[in-house]
Amino acid sequence: MDFLNHLLNFILPPRCQKCGTIIGTEGLCAQCFSQITFITEPYCQKCGRPLAEAKQGQMLCPQCLREQKSPFRYSRSALIYDEESKPLILGLKFYDKTENAGYLSKLLYQSGKDIWASGVDVLIPVPLHYTRLIKRRYNQASLLAQKLSHLIGIEVDNRSLVRYRKTKPQVEFSGKARLKNVKGAFRVTHPEKIVGKKIVLIDDVMTTGSTLKECALVLLQAGANSVDTLTVARVI
Fold it and tell me: What CATH code is carried by the domain that includes residue 213?
């Protein structure tokens, strides 16, 4: 297997997943890596939003201090979603660059350290409606979850949470309209696999969190112990 991998790398050498430059390993070239904005400490200990400065004791952002009813135990993201990180995510999501999932899952693994330390039972990717899945041919969130599962050793459940109502793309909406668009769109089909479980929802980008929040509420209503979210990037 090692010989075949070396042969494949010789014939098709790894390229930077952002600019396409030939590099020696999977991931980004040094220049593209330096352009990406990673979310590092200090960040809100609950929602993961970057903070301007560190404070003594538990660090919460103003929004989390105001809102005490979030359905999430923790939310974490690896990158800030901007013009530099966008090609990595859009390439995976819309342009068949499924090879990006391997590197992005490693970023998920690193950014989820607080979640892993608190205990996790199962990974659940945010599902696509079957019509969109047929059109796209794969669910990018599921690819990320499968790759992450190999790194962390936690099973993936692709069946218990389904999107049974077709919705318009969230990019067409803003604010409260996003919540309305996904309201009632998800359903738990196998509640016996959800009851008492500590669940991590996996997705590519968190914008307002409306889709993730709706998924979390449905899972909690089905008896989940807790729900965390882990995304490659988030809009700040």
Answer: 3.40.50.2020
This prediction has a pTM of: 0.90
How large is the average pLDDT for residues 166-175? 79
C-alpha dihedral (126, 132, 133, 136), degrees to nearest 10 = -110
Total structural domains within the chain:
1
User: Does any domain span residue 7?
Assistant: no
pLDDT of 55: 66
Domain assignment present for residue 2? The answer is no
Instruction: Provide the residue count of the chain.
Output: 236
Domain enclosing residue 103, as ranges: 14-234
Torsion of CA 133, 174, 48, 167, to 10 degrees: -20
Burial 168-198 (b: 16+ CB within 10 A, else e): eebeebeeeebeebbeebbebeeeebbeebb
Contacts of 218 (CB under 8 A, 6+ apart): 161, 186, 187, 188
Neighbours of 24 (CB within 10 A): 9
